[in-house]
Amino acid sequence: MNFLTLPFFLLGISTVHAFQYTELAQYVDSHQEEYVEALRDWVAIESDSSNVLKRADLHLMMEKVAQKLRLMGGNVELVDIGEQELPDGQMLALPKVVTAQFGNDSSKHTVCVYGHVDVQPAKKEDGWATDPYNLTDINGKLYGRGASDNKAPVLAWIHAVEAYQALSLELPVNVKFVIEGMEETGSNGLDAMILAQRDTFFSDVDYIIISDCGWLSIRPALTYGTRGNCYFFAEVQGPKQDLHSGVYGGTVIEPMIDLIGILDTLISPSGKILVPGIRDAVAPLSDEEWRMYQDIEFDIDHYKNKIGASQLMYSNKGSNNHVDVLAHMWRYPTVSIHGIEGAFSDPGTKTVIPAKVTAKFSIRQVPNMDPAMVKKQVTDYLHSVFAKRKSPNSLKVTMVIGAKPWLADTQHPLYEAGKAAVKRVFDMDPDLIREGGTIPIARTFQDVMGKSIIMMPIGGFDDGLHSQNEKMNRYNYIEGTKLFIAYLNEVSQIRKTTV
Ligand SMILES: CC(C)C[C@H](N)C(=O)NCC(=O)O
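A: This is the predicted complex of the input protein with LJKWNNLP.
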């Protein structure tokens, strides 16, 4: 079906080329096996950015991305972003950032698609039903680490551009890519790279598009906010070596007991953050926000079933009970305790007193929290709580990630264009949602570079990011590719003066 969309007329554009959506969508349908194979190829690379032993795989992953974009005729660079310092002082090369450009027509808008191809750790023994690095299609669900976060969405964007090329159709906008390999560990080195290229690669970029998140339900969504994240290490050091708990237990003051004691003062069982000052900075939920949340269809029982939880922290009785749940998912800070390095965690019954233990915990950030302030509040508080224990052990608190929250204006034409693209592909209106997770670079694009951003997820609500059995639905992957094709066309209709 060739037709011009309604928003196109509303926006007052006078000359256009007909948008050959039907041909493009058919092309996508007929190439879906190739797309799945491309995803299989990428998932097979264990590009875990948190594991220094996997750094060679991560370098290989970035090369693969660059190679794919080069084969499509893009102007591709692998940008060296330097090294990272490891906790033991060693230096390790960061994965290069891939930049690419398709089209250079100054009469068109230029969009820049940001994505990442690093993944969280995954082992079959963690409870995966399949090998996490061997993409496995079970009933249209493509299981594999990084399938949804964020390899399939990055590929879908690449395939969207490729489809225009394959049909010899002119891209309606210039498309740039910036693909990194450190997102899962705080986007180390990316801020500096972006700033360094502000007047070169990014100078003509009008809009940033990010597809590194998921829908809330089976309804497609556009995302207008993410939480930030402050990630802490709290290290308690005691005796000079691990000790036998039978021989020494009762005489030494155990680092693990100190650590658990201070961790227990971070948050109450009912979810109240106990660090003084943290909650004071949180912007109150406005009536407008309340109404937006109320309008979203969200089935709490379904949500509970999906994650296998019998009860949630917040679920009031009544017809608006989902508002509280959404607000605490997107709009309020929370503390999560992720693990303790140095603790015995293997199966079995080792009777050890660990000499040094390091807790990893994070606090999700929302407007108007400031990571620098949170760092001080948490560090001062934990030291004061620790001091009251009168322990001879030592405590060191370090903040290793300090990512700010991000919030967009849903009235921006980027969102109108997004709604039109969703309507075309899915024949329904999208949910306007926020995201509880963090995309560290979003604020840099917005505040430092002055770019408008839209987040356009294609992942399913139950994809299991960071978890066992992460998957991407074939449906989302393929229809998502069509969505991106349609979106490029919609963005081309935005008046050139709008930023
Ligand atoms: C759902 C998130 C925004 C996805 C993102 N790739 C991510 O996992 N970020 C790190 C985080 O801890 O939120």
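The mean pLDDT is 94. Residues 228-283+331-403 form a domain with the Alpha-Beta Plaits fold (CATH 3.30.70.360).
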